[in-house]
Design a protein that fits this description.
Layout (H helix, E strand, L loop, with lengths): L2 E6 L5 H15 L3 E6 L11 E9 L2 E2 L1 H9 L1 H5 L2 E8 L7 H18 L3 E6 L8 H7 L12 H15 L1
Parallel strand pairs: 1-2, 1-3, 3-5, 5-6
Antiparallel strand pairs: 3-4
Bound molecules: flavin mononucleotide (FMN).
Flavin mononucleotide binds next to helix 1, strand 3 and strand 5.
Length: about 160
């Protein structure tokens, strides 16, 4: 059985939930999957694939994730890698922020040597303050939860081909 590690970082729990959704889709397709906070990942040896996920804070993924990828480059080079960002403002905000996040995702994916990468929806615990809505171009009535579970599962299913 092929084994997949999903290493995540999170501040408020969304990325862990998304990691578990990705895991269950891969498990349905016959993979053995372990979901772990990246701080607890001892070794990258022996996995058939590694998925790395973290939220976007300050228009980049968490520094913890950037450090993880930078310090594990040789381990990542020995396996197939996929990267996901979890972002609230990517969806329905200004194009300039969307482009900024895409640029950071491309950089993260290149550093990790990832063959697949995606931005998935995040959520907020409460409404954005007015100034932030204007800055980021989010309408007042935008839902606080930008996750799309169908998109998450579709992306996870596409990884099955990558890791097969
Ligand atoms: C302090 C803070 C900063 C954030 N900055 C951004 C940001 O720059 N861009 C963005 O798209 N979302 C931003 N968000 C929204 C998060 O991406 C979203 O809440 C996500 O679901 C958080 O994932 P987590 O629960 O795994 O920490 C921010 C959230 C917080 C709490």
């Amino acid at each position: 059985m092929k084994t997949i590690l999903i290493a995540y970082a999170t501040k408020t729990g969304t990325t862990e939930e998304t990691a578990r959704e990705i895991a269950s889709t891969l498990e349905e397709r016959g993979f053995q999957v372990e979901v772990k906070p990246m701080a607890q990942v001892a070794s990258l040896d022996g996995w058939d694939g590694v998925v790395i996920g973290a939220p976007v804070n300050g228009m980049d993924w968490l520094p913890e994730a950037a450090s993880f990828v930078a310090s594990r480059k040789s381990g990542l080079a020995g396996t197939r890698v996929a990267v996901f960002f979890v972002s609230y403002l990517y969806f329905g905000g200004r194009t300039m922020w969307r482009k900024a996040i895409e640029k950071k995702l491309a950089m993260a994916a290149a550093t990790a040597g990832a063959s697949a990468s995606v931005v998935l929806g995040g959520r907020l615990p409460g409404p954005l303050p007015g100034f932030a809505r204007i800055l980021f171009g989010k309408p007042k009535d935008a839902p606080l939860d930008a996750r799309d579970h169908g998109v998450t599962r579709e992306w996870a299913a596409s990884l099955a081909a990558l890791f097969a």
